[in-house]
Specification:
Pfam families: Formyl_trans_N. Helices cover 39% and strands 22% of the residues. The protein is an alpha/beta fold. The structure holds 5-O-phosphono-beta-D-ribofuranosylamine.
């Protein structure tokens, strides 16, 4: 049995998609979802999905070993950031080398770094008249969006795409590929 812990800050549609993808897989256990946002929609989704969810604040994350201690109790094989907006502190990266992965809604190294999240990314892709965008699934290191790339998938951007339609295309790629890449990393497929 492989244990997955997810981190999310927002809506959690990727979390829900991953949970549903693995719900009939006896080799995967979703141990918990951890969130830094008390009112994040992902916490409601977890309740409906009957998945453990925990909230932590900035102090717990950056000034104590509290989140590290909680993570250790889950013995995670993989820690998955699915729309998690805070930078991961070094104590967590050191404790789980090559076990933390993130999804970014663009083709890194383009449109990465601080402030490049959510619609900011899709608006920048639109403003620069890109002809393609996509997703990047990568390992997490101490810098935003700079760890080794595991998988990138592209989609085309046409002249009449809006940031909203680009976001929809990117989300579709996320839903299709993120669970599959997680399964490959954990060797359960
Ligand atoms: C996704 O686009 C993901 O790539 C990014 O944050 C977004 C999260 O969306 N890191 P959701 O909360 O899963 O709906």
């Amino acid at each position: 049995m492989k244990n997955i812990v997810l981190f999310a800050s927002g809506s959690g549609s990727n979390v829900e998609n991953i949970v549903r993808y693995f719900q009939d897989n006896s080799k995967i256990n979703i141990s918990a979802v951890l969130s830094n946002k008390k009112d994040a929609k992902v916490l409601d989704r977890c309740n409906n999905l009957k998945i453990n969810a925990l909230y932590f604040n900035r102090n717990a994350f950056y000034a104590t070993e509290c989140v590290l201690d909680i993570l250790k109790t889950f013995n995670p094989d993989l820690i998955v950031l699915a729309g998690f907006l805070w930078k991961i502190p070094e104590n967590l990266i050191a404790a789980f080398p090559d076990k933390i992965v993130n999804i970014h809604p663009a083709l890194l190294p383009k449109y990465g770094g601080k402030g490049m999240y959510g619609n900011n990314v899709h608006e920048a892709v639109r403003a620069n008249n890109e002809t393609e965008t996509g997703i990047t699934i990568h390992y997490v290191n101490e810098n935003y969006d700079e760890g080794a790339v595991i998988r990138q998938v592209k989609t085309s951007v046409s002249a009449d795409d809006t940031p909203e339609s680009i976001a929809r295309k990117v989300h579709e790629l996320e839903y299709e590929y993120f669970p599959k890449v997680i399964a490959q990393l954990l060797e359960v497929e």
